[in-house]
Design a protein that fits this description.
2 domains; Growth Hormone, Chain: A; about 80% helix; mainly alpha
């Protein structure tokens, strides 16, 4: 009940604060609301107020001459945007299969691999839960590293690095699963670096960059639709990962199940490398030259 109340309180706080968040100036310009867009820009960057006022005055004079092209949801799959749609959707979908499959069942995986020799079920459960909590620290460190590196290395490079090491981390965990029972010490020595690599590099790379890219790859007219498609696809992948991991584990064993998740990560890695569109250091106008905003 306390956690529920805390979560509801946080939701209400975010909803209240959202009232004071201004609309995107680009979106307002797209709707012809030049003066409102200028007010928001001037509030954020007061030093350019005079220049913005001149630009707005000129835009209002020629506003009737601007032909606003309306794009439909189906335009995401046209040749012009298909490459970007694949880049935004597929890596996020495939990554979330592994992210949620491993993330939700971390204590279970630890209990099977690292604490298999513990005969007391309660003690094994407590130990695996504590281990999962310690490993979650690397998720926080990963996000901190992303903040530091995202403008230094770029979104695509970070995504490739992160997915590559997630793949390696899953293979290490699979190897730990293979060695369990025959050599408990080897399993323990493998499972820790496997989880550390997976958690750290996931949040340093694709768990953040897959959220950033859809917002940067598409023009204002398609941005919300593209982000909605990518997000919904990712959450479908998350649900799939949670659903299929226990089934695969029961059918072919934990090591093979982890290798299956690694294959999904590899798909995301290959798609990122093949369909990459660099956005670092480029304005949205450079990325989308046809966008009037």
């Amino acid at each position: 009940m306390a956690l529920h109340a805390c979560g509801w309180g946080s939701t209400r706080a975010v909803m209240a604060l959202r009232v004071y968040v201004p609309e995107s100036p680009r979106w307002l310009i797209e709707k012809g609301e030049y003066e409102k867009a200028a007010q928001i820009i001037a509030r954020i960057v007061p030093a350019v107020k005079d220049q913005i006022d001149l630009i707005v005055a000129d835009a209002l004079k020629h506003a009737t001459k601007i032909e606003r092209v309306k794009l439909k949801y189906s335009d995401l799959f046209k040749k012009e945007y298909l490459r970007r749609t694949v880049l935004a959707v597929v890596p996020w979908f495939s990554m979330d299969i592994a992210t949620y499959g491993v993330g939700l069942f971390t204590p279970t995986i630890l209990a099977i691999i690292a604490y298999d020799n513990e005969t007391n079920y309660i003690l094994r459960d407590i130990a695996s839960t504590k281990g999962a909590a310690y490993l979650d620290i690397f998720l926080i460190i990963g996000f901190a590293l992303n903040i530091w590196f995202v403008e230094k290395l770029g979104r695509i490079r970070l995504q490739i690095i992160g997915l590559a090491w997630m793949f390696i981390g899953l293979l290490i965990l699979a190897a730990a699963g293979v060695s369990m029972g025959s050599n408990g010490a080897t399993s323990l020595y493998l499972v820790i670096p496997g989880f550390v690599l997976f958690n750290l590099l996931m949040n340093m790379g694709p768990n953040a960059t897959t959220f950033i890219l859809p917002a940067e790859l598409f023009p204002t007219k398609l941005r919300a639709s593209a982000h909605g498609l990518a997000t919904s696809s990712a959450k479908f992948g998350a649900a799939l990962g949670i659903f299929i991991l226990p089934i695969i584990k029961d059918a072919i064993g934990l090591p093979a199940a982890l290798i299956s998740l690694a294959e999904f990560v590899l798909i995301g890695l290959v798609v990122t490398a093949v369909f990459k569109v660099q956005t670092m250091g480029r304005s949205l106008e450079e990325i989308n030259p046809g966008d009037i905003t």
